[in-house]
Amino acid sequence: MKHTFGLTLVFLNLFLLSTQALGAEVGDRPSCVDLFTSNQYNEAFPACLSDAQEGNEHAQRFVGFMYREGRGVRRDPQEGYKWYLRSAEQGNSDAMLQVAQMNLNGVGTPRNPHLYYQWNLTLATSGDYTKKNTGLYNLGVAYQEGIGVPVNYRKALDYFVEAANEGLITNAMFNIGTLYKNGPTGVRQDPYQAFHWFERAAKRKDAEAMALIGEMYARGEGIYIDFSQAYAWMSLSQLLGHRINQNLYQQVQRNLNSSDRQEAQAFIDTCMQQGYWGCE
User: Fold this and answer.
1) Number of helical (H) and strand (E) elements in the chain, helices listed first
2) pTM of the entire predicted model
């Protein structure tokens, strides 16, 4: 199963991207945002610290980042956590993500999986559409893996479905497919639903999902047998660097006639031209 889709990287990307729209929000002291977003951390730290001490939630988040990463100030994850927490308690969704992650990994604060769960629960009910869906996905992971709560595959499925449908989160789609494929306690095994969700993930450039629907086409699991489609999807997965089932791949190739192979190659070429996105 997929996990928290490179949480540290994802959270950092969300964090950095969100700062780009804050210049007007900080208002009276834009130099904090301007300096921070231009990576001038030595100058940004005192400016942002001043704003943070006055209660600005965005500046508090910036100060948290700089302390945690040692940018413009001596690295101090505990101080970083303190400032992130202040921002999160004011309702800053980016800070909530960071506080959740730091509790999960024990960075700047003792590891506390339950607080990871609680902060994602708060995030999932927030008004920030993008972060809300990340929170929903993370709640699914928490229930899937027993992070801060007992394992509950049914609840995991429900959260993943909400994250996939509302937020188009690819890993949520993949995890739904996996749950339906395996049928753990609380989830009825359903190869047709598994194929549907793997296909949605595959069309969003998920190489592992591509391999799986290729295998399902080859075996007739949740879909009719189609060696041309099986070959195409497994080939695309391999082109993206995923290690596929070579024995099955060779078996599929032996079942292809020249027309099947041409059809598959046309599909592969079109998909590659689209950047492996939305292939059908």
Assistant:
1) 16, 0
2) 0.86
